[in-house]
Amino acid sequence: MKDDPQIAGGPRIDTYVASPLTGDATDADRATIRRNTSVYVYEAPVRLWHWINAACILVLAVTGYLIGKPLPSVDIAEATHQFIFGYIRFAHFAAGMIMTVGFFGRIYWAFVGNHHARQMFKLPIHRKKWWKEVVQEIKWYAFLEKKPKKYVGHNPLAQIAMFFFMTVGLSFMIVTGFMLYAEGLGHGSWADVIFGPLRDAIGNSMVVHQIHRLGMWAIVLFIMIHIYAAIREDIMSRQSMVSTMISGTRTFKDDDPD
Q1: Is residue 16's pLDDT more than 60?
Q2: CB of 105 closer than 8 Å to CB of 45
Q3: Distance (Å, whole) CA 43 – CA 150
Q4: Which of 65, 140, 175, 176 could link 145 by a cystine bridge, Cβ 3.0 to 4.6 Å?
Q5: Please, are residues 95 and 63 in contact by the beta-carbon 8 Å criterion?
Q6: At 25, is the pLDDT very low, low, confident or very high (cuts 50, 70, 90)?
Q7: How far, CA to CA in Å, does 27 sit from each of 23, 38, 52?
Q8: For residues 151 and 239, is the Cβ–Cβ distance under 8 A?
Q9: CA gyration radius, the chain
Q10: Where is 40: in which H helix or E strand?
Q11: Cα angle 121-122-124, degrees, rounded to a multiple of 5
């Protein structure tokens, strides 16, 4: 009992509570620990969809390119004993199916999830302040703005990119992809009944092939910019970016409300 600080005449218990956690902790460090500098933003279904969708897009882009530009014949066996191109097509179709199901699941979660789960599907173009923030973000990415704004969810420029390249872009790729898939299933199949009239309205399957491939390159370009912007924001902005899509929590680097 003599080691009890209050009994032995030592410092009070609350002095220990306020003491540094480590020897090199400063008053500023302790103030940072006491601040609430993180917000839970992206729920688990949103994060799961993000990474599964990224994997599907990677598989679809690689296999889609190889379908349009097949590899040279591989002299490992007779053609009748090889199924290389069949595996490529199977991987493409399987990834497309998974992406389609996931996209419908993501639409469902936009209705039942939090506010940030809906940002990808609607743009607040009626808000004047939102447009001012778009201009500010353009200046920030162009290195014309010294101090970035703090955002809990997507910043306005990212919101625009996600809407056109993910919401609109994935819808376009899913529809045109099933138009082409319907040809393989044959006339009268479920895919042909649903998507055949759309393909015929466009003209012919070669046109659909071309616009589907152009859509792929547009999404590949978006992914490259998206990765660059995410890493750049992690380094230069005032909040976390990449780790947020892993943990779901947005962590801020300062407590300045502006």
Answers
A1: no
A2: yes
A3: 20
A4: 140
A5: yes
A6: low
A7: 12, 20, 43
A8: yes
A9: 26
A10: strand 38-40
A11: 160
- Contact between 123 and 160 under an 8 Å Cβ cutoff? The reply is yes
Q: What pTM did the predictor assign?
A: 0.82
Q: How far is CA 217 from CA 95, 102, 225, 241, in A?
A: 17, 21, 12, 25
Distance CA 245, CA 229 (A): 14
Packed helices 169-185 and 205-236: angle between N→C axes, nearest 10 degrees: 150
| Number of helices (H), then strands (E), in the chain | 10, 2
Tell me how far apart the alpha carbons of residues 51 and 57 are, in angstroms, rounded to a whole number: 10
d(CA 58, CA 61): 5
pLDDT tens for 53-80 read: 999 999 999 999 999 988 776 666 666 6
* Domains of the chain with CATH codes: 44-246 (1.20.950.20)
Residues pairing with 249 in the sheet: 40
Q: If you average pLDDT over every residue of the chain, what do you get?
A: 85
Q: Using an 8 Å Cβ cutoff, are 222 and 161 in contact?
A: yes
> Which tokens is 34 given?
């006491």
The answer, yes or no, to whether residue 184 has pLDDT greater than 50, is yes
Q: What tokens were used for 176?
A: 């045109």
The CB-based long-range contact list for 83-88 (8 Å cut-off, 24+ gap) reads 88/63
Cα–Cα distance measured from residue 152 to residue 45, given in angstroms and rounded to the nearest whole number: 18
Instruction: Enter the DSSP assignment of 155.
Output: -
